[in-house]
Amino acid sequence: MVSLTDSFLLLCVILRASTGFPVSAKDHESCVKLFGDLLQNVTALLESPILCFGISSDKVAVSQTETVHACAPNPTQNSGCVSQRNSSFIESECWRNINADLAYYDIAIQLYLKSNLRSSQNETALLEPTRTIIQRLRKVSLLHKQEEGAKMWDSDSYNNRNKMCKLMRGFHLRAITMNRAICYMSSGDHRN
Q: Signal sequence: where (predicted)?
């Protein structure tokens, strides 16, 4: 049974996280490591023959957030990067987009694991560590947002694996972006 105090503390954590404010300095080191772990995990997941077995497509599916733009570094005078924005870096906006991405991929993996799988035991063993890292990141510093449960997966395991393979390729790209953003915020360069 959850006590009133525990409920209040949880509410405080959720309310603080939902503002999208940056994590505290003590959590930065933990976040940097966890985001690095997430990137390594998703890279290894895509190198495994289990999820994308028999799928020849190299298409990518990503969430509909603005993480790439929101987390782009401050523009520099001599930069030739096309994707840099014209405005200054807003840390809370970057966090909000990262939070939305993590919530999206957490729900997508959770629902996928409940669908008809080709190799349930192997796919679960492959994807659960990714979910665990995502959930640890969300508990450390990020927004706990409940996504609406749209029907993402059907009864065809091949179609589901095809979608999940594309989703994980997109997540790999997004994990690279998140990792760079976390390192940028952790360095403090955006405050100069």
A: 1-20
DSSP state of 191: G
pLDDT tens-digit series, residues 166-180: 888 888 888 888 888
Distance (Å, whole) CA 74 – CA 87? 8
pTM to 2 decimals?
A: 0.67
Domain-embedded: residue 82: no
Q: How far is Cα 91 from Cα 39, in angstroms, rounded to an integer?
A: 21
CB 63 within 8 A of CB 174: yes
Crossing angle for the helix pair 120-140 and 25-47, to the nearest 10 degrees:
160
Query: Residue 152 sits in a domain of what CATH number?
Result: 1.20.1250.10
Written as six digits, the tokens of 130 are: 């990714």
Q: Which domain holds residue 164?
A: 25-57+64-73+88-191
Nearest to 94 by CA among 116, 73, 77, 76: 73
Task: Report the C-alpha gap between 69 and 160 in whole angstroms.
Answer: 29
Report the amino acid identity of residue 139: K
Tally of CB atoms within 10 A around 59: 11
pLDDT tens column, 32-90? 889 999 999 999 999 999 988 888 877 887 777 788 888 887 765 445 555 554 567 77
